[in-house]
Amino acid sequence: MQFEEYLRQQGVAHERHDHAKTYTAQELAHEEHVSGYMVAKPVVVIGPNGPAMCVLPAPTKVDLQRAADALGESTVRLAIESEMVDLFPDCELGAEPPMGPLFNMQTVMDPHLREDEFLVMQAGAHDRAVRLRREDWERVCRPIVAPIICTKLIAD
After folding, report:
1. Which tens digit of pLDDT belongs to each residue from 105-132?
2. Residues 51, 79: contact at Cβ < 8 Å?
3. Alpha helical stretches, state H, the chain
4. Which CATH number characterizes residue 134's domain?
5. I need a surface site. Which of 19, 105, 112, 154 has the fewest CB within 10 A?
6. Does residue 154 lie within any of the structural domains?
7. Residue 52 near residue 107, CB atoms below 8 Å
8. How far does Cα 74 stand from its chain's mean position?
9. Which of these, 23, 104, 88, 93, lies nearest to 58 by C-alpha position?
10. Structural domain of 83
11. Domain count, the chain
12. Alpha carbon of 144 to those of 13, 30, 97: distances in Å?
């Protein structure tokens, strides 16, 4: 099922924005003229109980141990490209919308996303985004809310 159709079925008002192709969440923020902290970026992890979707602000990175803890898993790893293709057959690779239930996945949301009233996210294609109320997104996704952002500084 296409993302926007799913939003309509769930009664979620949204704005569709067509834009130049973007390949990262930060590029999407730039193209949409919003802070990267307003862009919801999905990161798919795989644990013993299967895939799950972590959703965090664009300029941040997921902490895999924190994600595992939030999901009640002993460990998780990042999904690989071939798994992503199988998990998101109706999406361009790298343009998956952060909507776990649409793809039968548990969703974990970092609380930093609650700092804005609206979220911007990819809509299944590199040249399409949607803007919607964060409360509506939370109502549909019913995420586990837990700190999953990596806080460690990485030495160059």
Report:
1. 999 999 999 999 999 999 999 999 999 9
2. yes
3. 3-9, 25-32, 64-71, 81-87, 134-141
4. 3.90.960.10
5. 154
6. no
7. yes
8. 22
9. 23
10. 3-145
11. 1
12. 23, 28, 17
